[in-house]
Amino acid sequence: MGTVHKLVCVKKVKQNAAEEWNESMPLPGDIIEGVAAKEGEDEYYIPAKARSELSSSLGKLSKSVLEVGGTAWVKIRRGDATLKLRVYVVQERSSKFQRRFTIRAASDDRHVAVLGNLTYEQCSQLQELSRKVVNTEERGLSKKEVKYDWKKVVGNYLPDQRSTVISSVLFMPLAGEHRVEATTARCMAWFSAAISSGVPLIFVNIQTEQIITSERTTSGGDACWAMQQSYTTTIATAQGVRLWFLPGVAEMSVVLRPERGETRFGMDIKRTEEGFICIYTVAKRTAADRAGLRHLHEQARESGQLLVLSRLEGKSLVPSTVSSTGLIQCCDNAEVKDFLASAINNMDLIHLHVMTWPNFKASTAASQVTGIDTIKPPQEGPRPVPMSSVSRINSRRGLLRDQNQPIASDCPGNWCT
After folding, report:
1. pLDDT at 172
2. How far apart are CA 123 and CA 272, in angstroms?
3. Cα separation of 293 and 360, whole Å?
4. Which PANTHER family match (predicted)?
C-alpha cells in the first residue's frame, strides 16, 4: 500500500468570532503552495512541501519582511482558484523549546493560522466548512424566492401532523476513534441491538456529518491589566455519523381518554438499553385498554417484540444523540411518567404514537396509522410530483427535555428503570 500524499494546509484558526472571517484571511482548508517576501511572479515563492519546511521558510523570511512593512505573501489553493494573500509571520506561542513560525491575517491580529500536513480530502472538507462560514456566493443563475403554503401542504400530505414519520440518531466519535469506520461500526451495532431487543426499526440511510466545535480561552497580562483580557476561540471539526430510520411499518396514533374516577391511564413504561421507551404492561378496563394498547401489547408479546412509544403529544421520545463519551441522549422515562400523572389528575386527553410491526392490527377505529406508505396527495386537485426519497422529510426534534443519561450495563434483561 502506497503512502498517502500530504499537503500543507490551514487546520484551524484562532479567532474570537467566526462570523468575522473573510476571504482575505487564511481559512481552514487553504492549501499553502508557497511563501514570498513580497507579491510578485510565482518564481519568487518558496514552495511549501511540508509543515516543518514551511516553518523554516517563514523563519528565514521573518527578518526580511520587516524591511517591507512586516508582511509577507502566501500563495494558496482554495477550491479551483489560486490566491495570493498578504499575511504577517508570527511565532507559535505553543512552541517553547523550538522556534516555529506560522501566519496570521494582515487585517486582524487575532486571526492566527494553525498549520498541519493533511490529505487533499481533509483539506476539501475544511474548505467546505469555511465556505459556509463566510457565506461565499456560488456563481450561477440568479435566485428567486417564492411563497409556499406550508400549513396547507402539511395538512394535506401528512395524515397526522404530530408525526414526522422519520427519525435519526447522531453518533459522535469517541475520544479514540480517528476513523469514521469505527463510529459507523458502533452506530450499526446499536441499530442491530435495538432490533434484536424487539424495537421495530427500518433502516433508511446513513451519512457522515461534519461537526464544528469551538473552545474559548481567556488570556491576560499582569494583575494591573486584568481588565484588558483577550479572548481566543479555537475552531475544530469532528466527523460524526447520522443514522436515519423509520418506526417499523408505521406509527399508530392512539388517544387515551380517561373517565371520571380513574387515577391512572393503565400502562407502565420502562426504557430499553438502547434508550427507547416501551410499554410493558397494560391493565384491563383502563383508558389504555380502551384505546387498544392492551391488544397491541399482546400482539407484540406473542411475537417476541416490544410495544415502543415513539411520540407523546407529538414530541419525540426516541434517542437523538450519542455523545463523544458514549452516553445516549434519550428521553427521561421518569419525566414521561410525571407528565402522564399530571394529565390524569387534570382528566386531560393524551395523544400517543406507537411503533408498529407488519402484523399489528388496531383494535379500535380511533387509532390512526401514519407511515411512509400513507403519505399520499389529497383526493382532489392535481397530483404533484411524488417524493423521490424518504430523506426529503425533515426530522423534527422532540420538545421534551432530553438528558445525557448513561445506559447501565447491569440492567435486568432489556430493561433500564
Report:
1. 92
2. 41
3. 11
4. OS02G0717600 PROTEIN, S1 MOTIF DOMAIN-CONTAINING PROTEIN
Block residue for cell numbers 517553547: 96
pTM (2 decimals)?
A: 0.55
**Residue in 9, 23, 13, 11 with CA at minimum distance from that of residue 233:** 13
Instruction: Tell me the average pLDDT across 190-199.
Output: 92
Q: What confidence tier does 218 reach under pLDDT thresholds 50, 70, 90?
A: low
- Give the end-to-end CA distance of the chain in Å, rounded to a whole number: 50
Contacts of 220 (CB under 8 A, 6+ apart): 226, 228, 229, 230
Q: What is the DSSP letter of 111?
A: -
Region of residue 139 (phi > 0: left; psi between -120 and 50: alpha; otherwise: beta): beta
**Residue 238 corresponds to which amino acid?**
A
What count of residues does the chain have? 417
Block residue for cell numbers 476513523: 179
Q: Which pairing describes strands 202-219 and 81-91: parallel, antiparallel, or unpaired?
A: unpaired
C-alpha cell belonging to residue 143: 435566485
Cell representation of residue 284: 384491563
Sign of dihedral through CA atoms 96, 99, 105, 107? positive
